[in-house]
Amino acid sequence: MDTYKVRQLRLAALLFMAALVLVSLWLNNYLLAAAGLVTGLLFLLVVRSGAGPAVDERELTIREKAAASTYAIYAGTIGLSAVLLLLMAGRGFVFLEALGLVFAYLTLFLLALYAVSYQFFAHRYGGGDEE
Questions:
Q1: How many CB atoms lie within 10 A of CB 123?
Q2: Over its length of 131 residues, how does the chain's per-residue pLDDT go in tens digits?
Q3: CA-derived radius of gyration, the chain
Q4: Where are the domains of the chain?
Q5: Dmax over Cα atoms in the chain, in whole Å?
Q6: How far is 26 from 41, CA to CA, in rounded Å?
Q7: Handedness of CA 80, 86, 88, 91 (dihedral sign)
Q8: What is the structure's pLDDT at 96?
Q9: Rounded to an integer, what distance in angstroms lies between the CA atom of residue 128 and that of residue 131?
Q10: Which of 78, 86, 98, 125 is exposed most, by the fewest CB atoms within 10 A?
Q11: How many CB atoms lie within 10 A of CB 95?
Q12: To 10 degrees, what angle do helices 57-89 and 95-124 make?
């Protein structure tokens, strides 16, 4: 990754962290502010360490495996949480229905984004229905 892209990512991460901290402090949600700062600093650390000159095949394989496992864990967890929250909403916990719906929409968006990006990369790198 070149230095220009690293600067852009750092600036975007810093702006997001600042906005998240300001909103969470305005809402008196100090846990969200702390979580946002820790996550942002970890992201900046990863971006900084990835700013080396070249990436070998081992590094690319590690990144692909990490992205695939992150997707699988996140999609499964957020989908299961959506179902559980919606089931609990039917038992009298009405305020959890909104959270369950948000999780359900996030899961659907994630699955749709994965499907679209898979088709894009399959077409770009020679995959597809042509045999």
A1: 12
A2: 567 777 887 888 888 888 888 888 888 888 888 888 888 888 888 777 655 556 678 888 888 899 899 999 999 999 999 999 888 887 777 788 888 889 999 999 999 998 888 888 888 888 655 54
A3: 19
A4: 1-53, 55-131
A5: 58
A6: 21
A7: negative
A8: 85
A9: 8
A10: 125
A11: 9
A12: 150
- Residue 107 contacts by C-beta under 8 Å, 6 or more apart in sequence? 75, 78, 79, 82
Nearest-angstrom CA–CA distance, 111 and 99: 18
Other CB atoms within a 10 A radius of the CB of residue 108 amount to 12
d(CA 120, CA 60): 19
Query: C-alpha distances in angstroms, 70 versus 23, 32, 36, 62, 73?
Result: 27, 21, 19, 12, 5
- Contact status, residue 33 vs residue 78, Cβ threshold 8 Å: no
Distances (CA, A) of 38 to 8, 20, 31, 67, 108: 20, 12, 11, 20, 28
